[in-house]
Each structure stands twice: as C-alpha cells, then as structure tokens.
Fold each of these.
Amino acid sequence: MNLCFGCVTLRAAEMEDLKLLMYLMNSPQVEHMTVGMNYAISSYNQADWIKNFQNTDRCLRWMIELDNGAVPGMIMLTDIDWINRTASIGIKISPLERGRIRGDVKDAMYAVHAYAFDELNLERLESATLEYNIFSLRLTRSMGYVDEGIRREKIFKSGRRHGLITGGLLRSEFVRYEDGSAPWQQKRMEERQGEGS
C-alpha cells in the first residue's frame, strides 16, 4: 500500500529508481552520514535487488516521491518487533536532488509514523544517528523524538570513532497533523503564496 501525506507519496521501488538507489549505496557522501557500511553495488546487483526485494514482517521500505515527480530518497522501518511493538526508522536522501519541496522529508516521516502507530499498532519508534549528522538529529527531534543516550565511540568512519545518538518516540508522544496544520506545511504554504504575489 502506498502512503500519502502532504507533498509525498511513499511507494515501492521500481526499475526507474535504479540510478538513485545505486547512488544512495555507492556515494561516499551518503555513506558518511549513515550508520552501517555500504559496499559498491553494480547496476546488475541493484536491478536484481529491485526485482527480488519484498517487504517483510521485519522490514518495510518505501521510495519518497514528491508531487512534482522528483524522488529524493527512501525511508524504511527496520527491526520490527511484533512482541514489543517497536521498530527503527531510517532514511536516505540524495544531496544531489534539485527538485526538493520544503518539508518533503518531514511529510515522509509523518506518513511513516502515522502508518506505524495507526496501522501496524506499534508503540515505539527508535532512531540511531551519528553524532555529527546535524540534519538527521534536527529532523528526529522536530518529529518529537527524545534523545535517550549516546553510545560512545560506537561507529568507525573516516578513520575515527564516533558516537551514536539514540532516540525514541512513543505512540502517546506522536503529534497529529492530519488537518494540514503541521508547522512545516504552513511555511510551505506561506512561501507558495509569496511566490504568487
């Protein structure tokens, strides 16, 4: 099922996403900002992944498609735990995408959160962010995540060890904006009105 909110539709990966997915996996810039390691992926390997990937009870992935047709990245729920009703959230965004819309990533995050809490009946979502990834830290905090700790020197990247900041968002803390009143949506509307005058 596709998820829609604001300016985004979250959908399955298609062959048309091959170049973007390869870039997200092969880019040193993207790898530097994300947890884990990426290995070089060929177009053959990436096409095979798209053909064979299926969402499972443990992992759900969506491409983020904007109203203007741009696809800046992907978002996912991983480590879904049906007994404890928890999951981890992850996102990869291309720094090269020029067709971005203000608040697009927040719209994507909101859609996944609403789905996780309202449809999957989860009680808690978790984030794990490299201490120097200021964009992701601001994003999760703006969505209501509470910093719960730092795993000191947990991740090794670029010849150094870095801390991993863990965060959590409970279902009871999730702020609802189904009426279109999200602060980032209001800013987007104000900008559009300013462009029209």
Note: Strands lie at 3-5, 8-11, 60-66, 73-81, 86-93, 124-130, 146-157, 160-170.
Amino acid sequence: MDVLKRVPIKEQEPKVRAANFEEVCLGYSKEEAMEEASRCLNCKNAQCVKGCPVGIDIPAFINEIKEGNFEKSYQAISESSALPAVCGRVCPQESQCEGKCIRGIKGEPVSIGKLERFSADWAMQNEVKPHPAAEKNGRKVAVIGSGPAGLTCAGDLARLGYDVTIFEALHEAGGVLVYGIPEFRLPKERVVAKEVENVKSLGVKIETNVVIGKAVTIDDLMEKEGFEAVFIGSGAGLPKFMGIPGEQANGVFSANEFLTRNNLMKAFKDYDTPISKGSKVVVVGGGNVAMDAARTALRLGAEVHIVYRRSEAELPARVEEVHHAKEEGIIFDLLQNPTEILVDENGWVKGIRIIKMELGEPDESGRRRPVEIPGSEYEIECDTVIMSLGTSPNPLISSTTNGLDVNRWQCIVAQEENGQTSKPGVFAGGDAVTGAATVILAMGAGKAAAKGIHEYLSAK
C-alpha cells in the first residue's frame, strides 16, 4: 500500500452515467474504507477539524473505521453533524477538512469525505440511529426551513431537550437537498429522506406546506403560538438574471426552477413532468449549480454548453464537478458572455448571442475582471437557456416580521457567532444571511444558532 496515495473509489463510467440518474460515485467497500482510514496520522492537533464548519472529530471517526468499529464511527460523526451522508457527498472537502490534512503536504490528503459517506451509509444500511435526545424541557422553538441550516439547528436543539417544530414551505422536507441538488449527486429516497428521518427521531416535528409570511408570521408564532425563539433558515431561493434582451422568452429558466421541477416532479424517473428538456441547452454560469443544471439537461437528452465569462482557472464550481461534467460530454465555452437571447416569432428561444471576453485587471473580489472584445460577437443556436447566476433570499419573511433588519441584498442581518438578529428571540443563519453558499456552511450557521438560542433561553 502506498500511503501517499488515496485508495481509489469506484465511479460509473462517464458514457453510462450520462444516460442515467443513478449516483456517479459508488462508494468504498468495508475493506477499502479501512485501508483508506489507515492512512490517517491521527494528529493530536488535528488541522482537519479546524477546517470543518461543524467541528466533527475527524481523527476519532476515522480511527473507528480503521478498527472496524463502524457504529462507533457513525456515532462520533453524529455528535456534531445531523447530515453525514449528505456532507460526505456534497461538501467541498478539498477546500475545508481535506485541504488542511497533513497527509496532503507530501502526498494526497485522506479521503475524509468519502469515509464520512461510508460511515453514514453503513449506519443507514444497518438501521443505526443517532444517540437519543435529552428529555424534553417543555420550551418551544420554531425553525423556518427544512434545509441544511434548519435541520442542523433543529437537531442540536432537540438533543438539548427543546420542543422543536420545523415549518417548511414546500410539500417535502429537505430544502435545497431535495429540490436543488440532482439525484445523481444526492439520492433523495435513499439518502436525504433517511437523514430527515434521523432528525425526526430526535423528536423534531416537521410541518410542510406552511409559507411563513403568508400562512403565519414570525410574530404570530411568538405571540400566539407560544414559541420562545425562532430560527430562520429559509435559504436563498430567489434567482438572479442578467437583464439582457430576450430573457422573458419561453425556454428560459433559472437554474433553481429547472432543478426544482426535475427533482420535486421526478422528471429523472421519466414521469410526465412539465419540464422543457430541450435538444440544445445553454447554461450561463460557472458554479456548482450551473454544473448540476448542465449535467441534468444532458441526462434528459440534450447537447449542453456552459457559457462562462472567465477562464477555467476562475470557475467557482468544485474541481470534481467540472471534471465529471467534462467526462460526460458537457461543452465549455469559456471567456464568453451572453448579450441577447434570440426569440422566434412564437416567443420561444431560438438561440443566444455571445461576445468573447478577455481577462483584465483584478476586481474587488481579487479575480481578474472579464472585458469584452469588440467585434467578437457570434450566435449559438439553442432551444433552452438556463441562467445560473446566483440567488438571493426571498424578502417575504423579512417584510412580514417587525423589527428584523436586512441589508441591501435582502439578506437578514445576524451575528456570525450565534445567529442573533435585530429582533429579540429571532435567530437566522445559512443562505438567508449570507446569500447562496454551501451546504456545510449553512449547517455550521445552524449549529452556531442552536448554541445561541440555548444560551438566550437559558438566560431568560
């Protein structure tokens, strides 16, 4: 065994997986997981833990895998994380825990994410549940949104004995885990639903089809329903567009809408779903959501182009997602930017006009600013355009809550260390505060808010 190199992990072949919605990565076997776990140096001052937004005791859970104690490994993770099977699949480990792994200095870092996935999957297959919650203390807390921030906050509070109810606007719990991430990256029934059930096993109640701000307000929850504190983890589901001509045409989607229709309406199972499959699709953007939308459209039978205004080095998507997209046949049109969506006489997309770009001086983000090349415009024929330009929070909750401050992007203003907002007893975290970010950062915010709520209520 070469300790400097990871144990390889099996994946579906690109040509095969490009035509199905089955999970790309097939995971480690017991023997492979134990071999990979043996590469861990079990550092006393573990830098990997410092890189984990939810503070998992990484050396401890990996050591248990090495020893073959898979149940103990899962329990070690679940002390800190409510969603280990999710995080093992979608976290950007390369820039967090694995990015700080000492093994990575002279070789390849330990596959922390794949080992977390193995541990969580083993627990689900063997019906192992997290340790039970503390006895209920009779104090009620409301959580708005059943995405990663809400589930984490609810799970942590339930463990402390609080009577927690999650209010979810859609008909299925899970938030972005259900409607935003494709089946081939995150299986819904096999993984997400079981993680949600684990949170419910702690005593958390989930009420679906409740739109906070319309069905009931936060003020109502606190003044009429007896909730002593509220956590807002409603995410950032309001899509952004470019404002170019033709964006109102039929066949133009936000990535949010496209992925939501595909996931919640189960287009990936060949249901009779009102989703425009398209024969030639252009996805505008370069983040993880753009990769998800492009790879979904490909699996629905389209030729797919990703148009991004910077170079490959500036792509914000995970390297693994870009690599998988290329393997599957996605075409990358880099250093190019749309200027107009072309529309036929019936109001449908017939193409997109593009201008070529070059990189100029760095902007305020530190990345080199893309600059148009005059006279370089050309057209791509297509019948569907998917805009993946980021999202912002829906202002419905903030606009119906007295005393809740927001910033100019409609993000709720909250303290980073504990999630406290300007309204006493109301806490917030995740994308509703930061704008669109990662699952694990939202979980970290939910964990911090749970601690803040516990301290707040303990002082009352």
Note: The longest strand covers residues 349-362.
